[in-house]
## 1
Amino acid sequence: MENLYDVVIIGAGPAGLSAGLYTARAKMKTLILEKDKAGGQIVTTNEVANYPGSIEDATGPSLVARMVEQAENFGAERKKEEILKVDLQDKIKVVEGEKNVYKAKVVIIATGASPRYLGVPGERELTGKGVSYCATCDADFFTDLEVYVIGGGDTAVEEAMYLTKFARKVTVVHRRDELRAAKSIREKAFKNEKMAFIWDSVVEEIKGDGIVEKLVLKNKKTGDITEIEAPEEDGTFGIFPFVGYIPKNELFKDFLETDKGGYLITDPDMKTVLPGVFAAGDIRHKSLRQVVTAVADGAIAAVQAEKYIENSFED
Amino acid sequence: MIILEKNNFEDEVLKSKGLVLVDFWSDGCEPCKALMPDVEALAEKYEGKVKFCKLNITKARRLAISQRVMGLPTILLYKDGEKIEEVTKDEAKAANIEAMVEKHV
């Protein structure tokens, strides 16, 4: 059959690349589809300090580059294509992209998650005009300017510290009165002289004429509204929201089981309710979303995929 | 694609007649690098009709900000030196860039 793969993997982040590495190494005809550049969210991270065995100064992009090379060396095929539609009910799965239609015995869903928006007025209009969700993309612009980071989790605080290498001052705005970030990260942040904190506050609105000029905050305890204006000599400042993630589940949520956050539910073998359909990485319902858990998911899904094909398809 | 720097931006873009497209990118911007091959393909397709350029903002941050670019990737389209349209961030995809160019050629 034309274009029939053993395994089609949707998403080339760490989970998808790990799955592809394992299935290709097991001599299964493997295709990894990705709409953007390989790597997923990790390529927008400058520091990967907690991935076991990662060499000193490993960055997201360098780690991913090695994963890609490894998967391709084992024979995994990789294509850049956005997937528009999937039909996963039958024994032969159909994955429809912008350019081609692919068929597979197994589909591994590794689409991941993307940053959650604040959902306040001005946010969408001023994205790329001072509002950014990618510190490594846009930090340069804020050299010697002020930056506000919204959120209090690990990502928010780590990205805030990264931004202090560029910005004059980085203020973390958090809706509670203490950070949710891990203790080791918190301690570093409190020692950093360029960091400041605004507690108990949420963003109400972002204002500006073609460029960020004002940030409107509301104190959740007192109800007070504060309007932060750009210093006159700067004219603008940066706003980096890191308030969690949303799963990229659009293609699957209508027929696969999800938790209340929209993450796909699998069993410990990464199986979904549909035979031959697996999920791996950040898209899955789980307690820890890190590279190390994503690659583990990918490996498990790959091995289960091989078993499924052996049992369900006779040559 | 023409490689822009601080010292040729004015001549190549602001003083240039006709349509000029500028792809703003940087060394640290992975989405920009992912997009670049698509922009290069469009550069070939529209050769002779639109002048395709790229600017690494790492060494030209102020210049980028002067063009109201504060986030990457951003693609600006100029006509006779005037900025007429742009796509940025999630919108900066091959199909959207082509649609923007197609409107004006």
Note: Chain B touches chain A at residues 26, 28-34, 57-58, 61, 64-65, 68-74, 88-90 (CB under 8 Å).
## 2
Amino acid sequence: MARSAVMAQTSRRHAILPVEGMSCASCVVKIEKALRNLSGVIDVKVNLLAHRAYVEYEPDKIGIPDVVKAVQDLGYEVLHEEAMLHVSGMSCASCVAKIEKVVGSLPGVTGVVVNLPAESVKVEFYPGTTTKAEIKKVINELGYEATEKPQGHAALDREKQAREKELKRQKRNMWIAWPLSLVVMLGMFQPYWIFKDIVPMWLHNAYLMWALTTPVVFIPGWQFFVNSINGLRRGATDMNLLYATGIGAAYLIATINTLWPDAGFGGKGATFFESAALLTAFIVLGRYLEALTRGRTSEAIRKLMSLKAKTARVIRDGLEMEIAADDVVIGDIILVKPGESVPVDGEIIDGYSAVDESMITGESMPVEKKVGDQVIGATINKTGVFKFRATKVGADTALSQIIKLVEDAQASKAPIQKLADFVAGHFIAGVHVLALLVFAFWFFMGYDLFFTPESRFVLSPYSLGSIGVFGFALLLSVTTLIISCPCALGLATPSAMMAGTGKGAEHGILFKGADAVEATSKLQAVVFDKTGTLTKGEPSLTDVVAAPGFDRRQVLQFAAMAERNSEHPLGEAIVRGARDEGLELADVEAFNAIIGYGIEVRAAGREILIGNRRLMTQRGVEFGDLLAEAERLENDGKTAMLLAIDGKPAGVIAVADTLKENSKAAVARLKALGIKVAMITGDNQRTASAIARQAGIDTVLAEVLPQDKANEVKKLQERGLNVAMVGDGINDAPALAQANVGIAIGSGTDVAKETGEIVLIKDDIRDVVSAIEIGRATMRKVKQNLFWSFIYNTLGIPIGAGLLYPFVGFLVSPELAAFFMAMSSVSVTLNTLLLKRFIPSMRREEVRV
Amino acid sequence: MSNKIARVSALVYIALSLGFSAIFVAATYLTGKDYPPVARWGGFIWVFVLGMIITMPIVIPYVKKRYEK
């Protein structure tokens, strides 16, 4: 059983394919449905705005080319990537054949061309199925040496090209559709209003209008017919089908009435060519505007990608040379001059400078860098010249990790999106059922009961007098199809999520998923870990109180000896304090850490015990009056540690950790946002309370063992609160995982390893406030977008179906329905773009200062 | 296998759509009104088109699942 399960797992593969050409949620449903219908495909998840399709499949049943073909058959494009490699070591044609065969057999590789004299290999593959590193690896395993040619920005350029291609295509369609449609409209309106005076009569000729409408329907409108037929063949439907049925029906009726006026469809008085033409024109306009605006919501990723330096000045064998940043290897020494970008992550080995890290951390002030400091790739050197050793390259750099994290977040779905997905997913079938019912109602009942020959479409001059029962019912049915398009509904959540996660990344706040954004917006309580989060985390020695029979230096010396091998910050503070006083520290003979209590050490022939009250009580050491000293120190916010030597009380040592500069302001702002703030620490109640008082925190969870922090968070959750835990991603991992939102603070550059839903690159708790504000602003946008989308569909459908017609004679024409539909999508996207102007309150203040 | 699924599916959704259209035409007679032939048969075609659009995405996965079982 277990073995078969493992085999089933190992026979599965997954790929993330970049899909272009999707315009709304129905495209998502269409692709997901079509791919799921393929034999061998196990799971499919498509993200509209990230333009990615995650496909899990069984390679022995289906290959990536089959999956790609299925997507292409639906009318979408799957972008492929091209890798240009330099391969040395090839000597003859058999090398060429060998490389072509092995690389060609990798999943997702569609073409391999080896050029022996040029020592190059060009590989075409679908990104997400294999990687350049994998390709290089298999070539290297064959005994050659493959390196990548400088193409760091290729992916970015390709994406840009694809977007430009789509814009160009829709622009061309607009140039065909709009001028012709406007002429057709003028022709149709010629006998009415002022048009009879300004428009020549010959333009009203039905044959001319038919000749003008036909190219509109069959050139810009052709895409809808092709895509819907491809979808239907795979058992999937989408918006294209609504457009195609709408445009097709309007055009067909008008054509029949022109060419065969006696056929009984309303005759020459019912040639609504402008309906078919303007309907196409409005839909194309909507597509164009969407392509134009939607690309801007994913600007964050593009902005991050564009930060990558193209070249690096490397010193190899004492020679300075400029190479592609992608070719830098770990250990390379890199020279960076003022104004230049740092190409990869590394450690400064020579020089001094100030580096602008705002693009990665959000920190507006340049950070001073000296020998031993870390530099982050993509940051900009402002003043001095320095050399650094590369420590992370390629996908391991901070920038690559951040891009990956943001990409993953943008590819995820928020819980609130489920409703929209459900509605959009079931909409097409529902809308066609509705169109059928509308048709049946107006055909069998409505026409006889309510139709009057004076009826007109809104904003249309001519009456529908000569239209028959079939034509009338058909027009209302078509209008219902067009006005029902849930495009705005499909865009509402993901567009706002993309903008929100991008806004976070801009400020060094990385949301790990759309669900994290939603959960952050609902937070009611924030629990801060004390040490290193609220405080600087680097305590220093403040007091040494000796017991009778011991002197101060002796107490400090023994305490420092005990803590000599300790990695605990409190222990390090004592050791630093002793060294500052020039005390000699003997080697430790035996060491035992008692987690949550203290340590037990044998040094210089003495048994030393250092820790808290519980440890001393457990070991039966009575501290008597010294406890009052300890209490006094603790009341001052210091951490007092008790020291016992050979089972006798020897003294009290106090260290203190001070609040970070911005902790108080951040706590105050959180409270102003209506959030309950608590602090959690292993320190005793008094020390914890003193720090909490300084920070302005009312709820203190003190003397909590590391393993119990998660339980404390759970207790708050049991009180009905949505809780965020803020701490470092390693020590506080269980509590971060337990919280509704885990916020790992000050992660620096290794963001991928962090636990929690939000990673703050900078060690600044004001970013906790910013994260909550961004989460709330994003969810506000989501709700606004969903509200307007639902309102549009809720009001539009009954009006389009002719519900108001019996009462006010109000009829919406198909082209007006198309205009409303296009505007709903565009208004949602534009509303989302307003989020770009959002600046978190504390960041606004910082900028003002 | 996939051809068979496609054939069986087509048979089912075409039959269903024709069924809807037949019901529509029958209704035009049952109402007792004198509909012009164009309205009657135009309606037949429109109902058939909508019927196909509605049934295709439902029938194809259903038939596929039945065959896979």
Note: Residues 28 and 40 of chain B are 7 Å apart (CA to CA).
## 3
Amino acid sequence: MANITLVQAINLALVQEMEKDDRVMILGEDVGLNGGVFRVTEGLFKRFGKDRVVDTPLAESGIIGTSIGLAMSGLRPVPEIQFEGFLGPAYDQICSHAARMRTRTRAAFTVPMTIRVPVGGGIHAPELHSDSPETIYAHQPGLKVVMPASPYDAKGLLISAIRDPDPVIFFEPKRIYRAFREEVPEDEYTVPIGKARTVCEGEELTIVSWGASVVQCMQAIERTDASIELVDLRTIYPLDMDAIEASVKKTGRCVIVHEAPKTSGFGSEIAAQIMERCFLHLEAPVQRVAGFDTIMPYYKLETEYLPDADRIEKAIEEIRAY
Amino acid sequence: MSAAHTAIGTSHLVEAESSKRDSAARSLPPQTLLEWLRMMVLIREFEVRTMQAYQDRKIGGFCHVYIGQEAVAVGCTAAVEHEDPIVTAYRDHGHALARGMDPKYCMAEMFGRIGGCAKGKGGSMHMFDRDNNLFGGHGIVGAQTPLGAGLAFGTKYIDEVINGGRSQRVTLCFLGDGALNQGALHEAMNLAGLLNLPVIFVVENNGYSMGTSIHRGTTMADEITSKAIGYGMMSAQIDGMDVMNVYDGMKEVVDEARATSRPAFVDIRTYRFKGHSMSDPRKYRTREEEEVYEDDGPIAKAREYLYDQKLLDEDGFKAMSKEVRGQVRESIKWADASPPPDVAEELYKDVYVERWGPYNGTSEPEMLGEPGGNGEG
């Protein structure tokens, strides 16, 4: 076991998969010589060489389109996009090609590509470098969307993503890249895509969250004396609705917490499915604690925007008092 | 009278005149030249029947036919090896046939039938054929060009990084002149130039981006090979109305790309005889202009050459045409007989690899591999 950060866990997963399978290769802006904008690929250039850790120009459409060609050739590219805001230029390639290739070719061609993308706010970045666009990609059939909230899950999920035959958007919450350490096995292991994790069990109320917000939820839970079950989705799509259903049927109350704007955020989908599946078990309306329906503000206001322990605690009190 | 292209005039030009003196195509076995002519006739007949089928509402969606441009697909595919990947845009029936796809799979795909090359899930713009190394058929103008760079990167990575050899593959990435103005192409060309990717960007320059002439939509319209200079790649300009000329010009470029493992950019001057799609009133050009090209089309040109060389006579051509008509008729019959995809079975199939939620796993990857699904029963 090693006591490491989320960044180190991702780095370790990349090293191990590249050691194991020479079809795995990395490409992106500054991923090589400079080790990546968040230093996630530190040391890989030296270890695997410029042919497997490829520094590219600043050209997101080109990076992802080229990666799709590589994947269709039978390789396992792991491109990095520096910030979630820069997915915009690559959106066409992701949604017009990667997501649809399996259907469009009746599986004659597939795109086993993992796009690594730092995501979310909380690091004093400008807007456009702090968004949470997971819903956009979860809404595109053909993609899998993953967002770990801990070093252990980050390593296991990334290994699963790289080995997955379908395209995966692997969102890395940049706020918790180095926020805490966790014991992580040095040997390889996988965390299955599409399975949520119960962070802590409880009887009175369920909180569903993912990414960096999971940490805020844990802080809020520590402050209350309520018996709360926290479900970390780990994978946005495919959504592990069975886990949510089981928990909400037990507790009868649910708060959903995410960074993205509230309207049409992924919490909306979860709330709708809870209503479809758990209506007669609900003791109170589902609550959402989310970002506001606005552009993510510049850093002086970002703590106002992001759901924090105070807002989550308030929602907990409200739903308990309902 | 206006022409789609002003006179071709550059030192890069592989001209018909010069290639007559030193033509690789002309030294090929006569059977090869006859096969090229037959393939062009097949594509023409296939597209004529495609237009009829579209008007008969057997083909849904949108439909873009290749009539007039046959020499480009035939000459280019002849200039590469079967293992060399090919990727193209949405006017793709000609490439699929020239690459070796049986016309019946192509027709059934457009009919939306289970017997199509993609089980009727892709349609006219999405012809794929793994056995023949055809990587699509793509609908977003220019968006296939980074894929072309990636395919070239893939062959090179497999041959050199994984297998430790020296890569001998080239990739052909077709695009229309309309794609010249898409950002993705410029990212792809820069990447290819920078990373030494052996991809040849083949511009099928028919002079029109849908209804906008190249002079109205593109800078340096008469010298588009100038764009290659900025990305450090070799270029050539080729008269695309003569299949032997296309072969000669492309062979030179392909050999060079193969030898140097470098990208290239080719401007092939051609003309689509029909509209952009099936609902194009063609207000942007004159009938006179169309006639100029039609009168000297690629099929007539190749046929005349073979007549001159006494390699074919009129009876021989008639027999060839008759045989082709029969083949295309069969493809339509076959497509008609193929059932549409079963909703319960297919709607959620081939979206993800595994079964979960509504998703129904995936097909076997072999073309028409599943019993009962090929429409032959």
Note: Strands of chain B lie at 13-14, 86-87, 171-176, 199-205, 208-209, 212-213, 234-239, 264-269, 355-356, 359-360.
